[in-house]
Amino acid sequence: MIDTQQQSFRAGLIQMCSGRQVLDNLIEADRLIREAAACGASYIQTPENTALLELDPQVTRREAQYFDDSSILVRFQNLARELQICLHIGSLAIRLDQEDRLVNRSCLISPSGNILAHYDKIHMFDVDLAGGESYRESKHYIAGQKSVVADLAVGLTPAPKLGFSICYDLRFPALYRSLAKAGAQLIGVPAAFTEQTGKAHWHILLRARAIETGCFILAAAQGGSHENGRSTYGHSLIVSPWGEVIAQADGTKTQVIIADIDLSKIAKARAAIPALTHDRPFTIDPPSPGSDRKGIK
Predict the structure, then answer these.
(1) Is 244 known to be catalytic?
(2) CATH topology of domain 9-274
(3) Which of 17, 48, 107, 161 is catalytic?
(4) Pick the catalytic residue: 17, 167, 215, 265?
């Protein structure tokens, strides 16, 4: 649904619980995308690891396809063309070369089925969590080196500008500020946040990124207990530039959430708090040495 007079459009986010069978995941994504389109969404986003959520790197490498020869992408391109939607595939594991090097790539597809832009996840999730969970993305993926802002093909003139990020990028506010200063009005955050970190930080970080940038934040998430034993937090969110949650998924339930995006709210939020224009240069002094004067503690 598009309202050119009000400069608004309808966004749909897909919350999934992707497993280890690519075809099953694609069938489920197809069903949910069609549901979102039937609700009038002209922009639809899927979560990180849409086609496969797998902890075994050998399985991920075996299933990964080359970007220019991906039957998975062709499937989504055909779907975007059929439904006449702007389809944002949160991420896919993409093979770079015969050495099995991979990138975690997000793709934006136009209503005509063309790939408008793609982004490779910059920040790698290399952590050891309490309870024995351990993740080493950098062992399996090559980190991206470029941030991306692209026109969103939702029938508006001028086209809204979407900034790209993926999951762990959320913890690096400099990326989001750079995207906003480069013209982004909306920022996508497709994710597969762990249950443990999601409970503590998901809502806070997404709302903070919206407030800091004066952007709409759209975060489609994986949610639930996956076949590989991992649990993800879900709670897909759409956040306004003022930091208000305007749509939220019901916990880890597989579902679609919908919200009308009123672009006029971006200018209002940035006029009220014009922080993007208030950068000032500064230096950081080294730590002060302890005083040598006796009697001073």
Answers:
(1) no
(2) Nitrilase/N-carbamoyl-D-aminoacid amidohydrolase (3.60.110)
(3) 48
(4) 167
121 an active-site residue? yes
Residue ranges of the domains in the chain?
A: 9-274
3-class SS at 244?
A: coil
Residue written as token pair 């003139």: 157
DSSP designation for 145: -
Of the pLDDT bands very low, low, confident and very high (cuts 50, 70, 90), residue 295 is: low
3 alpha-carbon distance from chain centroid: 25
CA–CA distance from 236 to each of 53, 70, 145, 162, 176 (Å)?
Answer: 17, 27, 26, 18, 19
Q: Where are the alpha helices (DSSP H) in the chain?
A: 22-38, 57-63, 71-83, 173-181, 195-213, 264-272
pLDDT tens digits, 60-81: 999 999 999 999 999 999 999 9
Give Dmax (Cα) for the chain: 79
Q: Cα–Cα distance between 188 and 238 in angstroms, integer? A: 10
pLDDT in tens, 146-201: 999 999 999 999 999 999 999 999 999 999 999 999 999 999 999 999 999 999 99
Q: Which residues contact 295 (CB under 8 A, 6 or more apart)?
A: none
CA nearest neighbour of 43 among 220, 266, 231: 220
Residue tagged active-site, from 54, 86, 107, 121: 121
Residue 52 to residue 49: CA distance in whole angstroms: 5
DSSP 210: H
pLDDT score for 132: 64
Say whether 48 is catalytic. yes
